[in-house]
Amino acid sequence: MSLANSGSAHRPEVLRRKTLANNSRALIAIAAASMPMSVFWMVGGAAVPFVLAALCLAAGMVTLSLHHSGRHDEAAAGQVFAIMAMGTVLTFVDPELGDAGLGIASMGPVLASLLGRRAVRRQSWLLLAGVLAACVAASIVGAPAIPLARDLYLPVAGVAFLAALGLVAYTANRIGAAYEVHDRAQVNAYQHLIEHVRDGVLRFSSEGDLLLVSHSSEKLFGCRRFEITTSSLAERLHVLDRPAYLTAFADANIGGKARVIEVRLRRDEPGATVPSFIWVEVSFAPVIDPQETDGRHEVVALFRDVTERKNHEAAMREARRTAEETSEAKSRFLATIGHELRTPLNAVVGFSEMMTSGIGGDLSDTNREYAGLIHQSGKHLLEVVRMLLDMSRIEAGKMELQREPFQAAALVGPCLAMVDGVAKSRRVQIETDIGQNLPLLVGDERACRQILINLVSNAIKFSHDGGSVRVSLKRQGQMLNLSVSDFGVGMAPESLERIGEPFFQVQDGLSRRYDGTGLGLSIVKGLIELHGGTLRAISEIGAGTTMTVLLPINGPAINSEDTAVVTQFRKEPAAEPTIPWPEEKRKAQ
User: Fold this and answer.
1) d(C-alpha 110, C-alpha 100), whole Å
2) In CA terms, which of 80, 267, 482, 531 is 20 to 30 Å from 433?
3) Contacts 24+ apart (CB under 8 A), 80-83
């Protein structure tokens, strides 16, 4: 298995695995080199050198096989335990407590700390303790040692000790070099990041001295980085922003808290006679060092140019102010022109009505027809002016509601009578569904009447000739549900989303089939919102529209104790859970 597919791209891990393979090859080479002499000595009656060579060869071949199969942790454990096993054999050859075998065995935990995981390191120390205990016990009881000539023991033990020492030294050198290269690469990466990041990076000592200024700061400050010092940085800050800057720096330096502030900073512009200031977002991050004893920390500050965002926010505020002033001017214009038009229109309507009634003298049929048309047009203009005045008062927040309890069901009959003539001219039948025992509704009776008349008038207008309109009134929890449904032309989903916009009509242009100003539903929506209610619409092209109004029974300020708490005189079954109001818009198929 290649190292690229080993599951880790960390350089020390890669070099650790290469070191494991090299150690296995070194064990095989040592065993191959010592095997001829070991066989010769074994023929002469000394089996210990052959045992050590065979153990070394087996350890090298097994760990190399484990390494090639990707079982690197097991390969490291095999090398550690092989060294400790060879040291244990030599320990029992020499009856003395301190010998070369114990020294070789003690190198096992050292090798485990370099190559193995936590479990291998723990097991190596336990095994070394067991070997030491066995040596002590053998010395106390005087156990016989493994027979080996003294002149043969010294070269065998020396070669084994040097091999184990060389293996550990090579491993330590490779692992140390790997971490050194890794640390240097990380430092280079961090330095490259600091030097080329778009934000200016500054590092301050615990005493507040400037230690580091990134290369990217030159563009931000408009000067070379060596020109930026602690004193010059303070001078560049706008005089009104210096207290906030010093406070935030103290919180990070002394309190160890990260802070983010926005300040104005002077930028040097070539050839400029007047200093230019830019908006900068400064992020202070304390460098927490457990070794610090004086309570101060180094601080890393990131300076980010946010002038464009600040200018955009200022432009948005100016645009919002301009829009509000324009809206107020429009409302004042509508109110003024409405009052100016209503007086002469009242005169036109009144005198035309007198003319049609014959008070001013007999008129010919043609003149009477003309007077009727003048009277009808004047009333239409008066209605338009009234709607404009209502819309301007609602937008200006000047519409005041006269809140008083009244029977909502009593509104339905008079309102339908007012639109009955239009309904009969279109042969539209109006059906009603009024709930029983409806509570008193607290609100403005005139506004609620206007809501119902506008909704029914719209339903009749957009119904087909000979169609029907359904009006229902019922209680829904703490709300009163008023629904007006027609089975006419319906609306598209994009038109539903714009319901309530002033002057919006589904059919625009000179070729539209339905007259009107587009203010009816906007006034209805405004009156409903003044009552604290909601307007919902469900429509489908060709299938009709259902407009639903939910009004709080107790008015805008709902008193839940009056509408929800019911005194129980007898035990009743638990009420069924209330089905939430569906927010759905049916689309055309």
Assistant:
1) 16
2) 531
3) 80/108, 80/109, 80/111, 80/112, 80/115, 80/116, 80/120, 80/124, 81/108, 81/124, 81/127, 82/27, 82/55, 82/56, 82/58, 83/107, 83/108, 83/111, 83/164, 83/167
Q: How many other CB atoms are there within 10 angstroms of residue 546's CB atom? A: 20
Amino acid identity of residue 164, one-letter, is A
Residue 407 CA, chain-centre distance (Å), reads 49
- Which structure tokens are listed for 256? 């160890």
Q: pLDDT digit string (tens) for 500-532?
A: 565 555 554 444 454 555 566 777 888 888 888
- Give the Cα separation of 500 and 326 in Å (integer): 20
* Residues 6 or more apart whose Cβ sits within 8 Å of residue 566: none
478: tokens are 């703490």
Among 491, 489, 485, 513, CA closest to 429: 485
Q: Which of 276, 280, 284 lies closest to 305 in space, CA to CA? A: 280
Interstrand relation of 534-540 and 259-267 (parallel, antiparallel or unpaired): unpaired
Using an 8 Å Cβ cutoff, are 135 and 104 in contact?
Answer: no
Q: Which of 547, 542, 545, 546 is nearest to 589 (CA)?
A: 542
Q: In the structure encoding, which two tokens stand for residue 267, read together?
A: 């930028």
What's the confidence (pLDDT) of residue 281? 92
Would you place residue 259 in the very low, low, confident or very high pLDDT band (cuts 50, 70, 90)? Answer: very high
Phi (first) and psi of residue 198, to 5 degrees:
-65, -35
The pTM score is 0.42
Instruction: Give, for 229, the enclosing helix (H) or strand (E).
Output: none
Q: Which two tokens mark 125?
A: 């120390």
Number of H helices, E strands in the chain: 17, 12
552/338 Cα distance (integer angstroms)? 32
Cα 470 versus chain centre, distance = 46
The C-alpha atoms of residue 160 and residue 23 are separated, in whole angstroms, by 15
Q: Looking at this protein, which amino acid is placed at residue 422?
A: V
Q: What is the mean pLDDT of the chain?
A: 77
Which residue bears the tokens 């029914």? 456
3-state helix, strand, coil in the chain (%, to 5): 55, 15, 30
- Mean pLDDT of the region 110-118: 83
Cα–Cα dist 434/483, whole Å: 10
Say how many residues make up the chain: 589
Cα→Cα distances 46→144, 442, 480, Å? 16, 113, 107
Residue-level pLDDT at 284: 92
Whether 567 shows a pLDDT value over 50: the answer reads no
Q: What is the pLDDT of residues 456-495, one digit of tens each?
A: 888 888 888 888 888 899 888 888 898 888 888 877 776 6
Q: How far apart are CA 340 and CA 385, in angstroms?
A: 10
Report the C-alpha gap between 369 and 375 in whole angstroms.
Answer: 10
Strands of the 479-486 sheet, one edge to the other = 429-434, 468-476, 479-486, 544-552, 534-540
Nearest CA-CA partner of 580 in 482, 481, 477 = 477
Residue spans of beta strands (DSSP E) within 337-478: 404-406, 429-434, 441-443, 468-476
